[in-house]
Design goal:
The structure holds two protein chains of two kinds. Chain A contains nine helices and ten strands. By secondary structure, chain A is α/β, with parallel strands linked by helices. A six-stranded mixed β-sheet of chain A has the order 6-7-8-3-9-10, sandwiched between helices. Chain A has a four-stranded antiparallel β-sheet with strand order 2-1-4-5, covered by helices on one side. By secondary structure, chain B is mainly alpha-helical. Chain B is built from twelve helices and no strands. In chain B, helix 5 crosses helix 11. The longest helix of chain B is centred in the last third of the chain and has 39 residues, at 185-223. The chains are: A alpha/beta, B mainly alpha. Chains A and B meet through helix 3 of A and helix 9 and helix 10 of B.
Chain lengths: 270, 282
Amino acid sequence: MPEPHPLNRKPAASQTRPVYEIERLSKTYARNSLVALTDVHLTIHKGEFVSVIGSSGCGKSTLLKIMAGLMPPTTGRVVLEGQPVVGPRRDIGMMFQHATLLPWKTTIENIVMPIEIREGRSAARAARDRAMDLLNLVGLGDFAHVYPGELSGGMAQRAAICRMLISDPAMLLLDEPFSALDELTRDFMNMEFQRICMERRATAFLVTHSLAEAVILSDRILVMQARPGHIVEDVTIDLPRPRTLEMINTTRFGEIVAHIRDLLGREAFV
Amino acid sequence: MTDATQGQGNDTVWVEQEALIDRIPRWVAMTFLFVVVVGIWDIVTRMGWVSPIILPTPAETLDDLIFVGRNLIARGYMLDALWTTTLTVFYGFLIALTIGFSLGVLVGETKFGERAVLPYLVAIDTMPKVAFAPLFIAWLGFDIGSKVALAAFIATFPIVVATAAGLYAASENERMLFKSIGATRMQTLIRLKLPTGLPYIFTGLKIASVGVMAGAITGEFLGGGRGFGALIRQSASQLDTPRVFALILYLSLLGLALYFTVVWMQRRFVFWNKSDRPGGVG
């Protein structure tokens, strides 16, 4: 069997400014003294798309929560844009598995909701033009004034993308954002999301269960293993940008997927 | 399309047949059931199978319905009684709403409420609340106050439970979203948890609206006074069964009015929740 190309070499192109820096991060839950993360090092540069993949319980959700400032680390340095992360920050945008649009607000009201919470109603009203631009960006321009109950799953997630982008965050944190969608919608959303990220030179960190999704979207994939949660390898994805769904059928794609599946080992499937 | 050009064979036409019992329009079904029940009632009483003291004939009941109706329209003593009961129910509901909602927020939102207040509430809720009536009479006298207290006492618990359950209804993702955008606890409560919990809260209010009626009437049975419950007890002690039937029917209008006020408010405030299931949540 031919050896695949080494995948873990650092790309020469990533010498842009670091946005998110994590050093020696560990997390131990006091409740049951469970070591969720140990010795995590991670630097994400401007415009980079980094994914983390691993079996459930490998600590990837814990990592995301610490990066979002939703949970304190036990030890280590967690720094975004030169400022330590000690709580939720407005330069972080988040997206979840479910769109979590508030059903009593229209799409556009949902999108300016973070501004309303942080700066009040008048600031939210002032942000409506920007919200409209974002809605047009994701192709939801005609749905600004309908209630979320009338949106499909994919449309709701596109609205959630707008809500994440409204405050122009420096870092996007994505917690399996498209995993609740059907496969066709999911492929489409991944391509849409790539386009949006490239257009805005967004820096993104994605937690996912899907190998194909991680490979098609990412510049780098962190492969994690559990007990205790740690990064096994930082895999660089050298597929050219923009990625297309056809790349899934290329040999290189297959090699990368096989390599990561190998790293995950049997642990991911039991 | 190729079939159309060939033009061969017939369309496969068939209609799904619903059973007759599922096809009856509501008003026909309701009228039908009413006629059947009253018909059986009429036969049973007319044939003398049941003593008229236990069950009056429909005609006697109708006579009393008209009599009571006239008294109400003429603003007689019965209207005063109905007004007294209405006030009791109204105040009882208002007090239950205030206390129930506050306790519900305490239980649903704070660990203290969940750990310290909830166990006591559950303990009290399992007691037969009507048994407290003599206490309320002793404390508040034979006036409207003791009835309001009993009505409120019975109606409070469903509101507490529903409010607390409603505050738990917001999903983990929604809570994380609010946390991640830096919402304060108060903002999360008012802008996420309470609106999400409204369908639950209204379900609690519907249960409470039934309970508050039961509490008010029980209070009037046990503590006398000038309400509709006292009238019913009086008629019952005189073995005037048709009058009791008539009074109960008018009383049920008060309960229906309260119930449908709550339903109307739910439609108005929870416009995004299109569930029409009776008592439905979600």
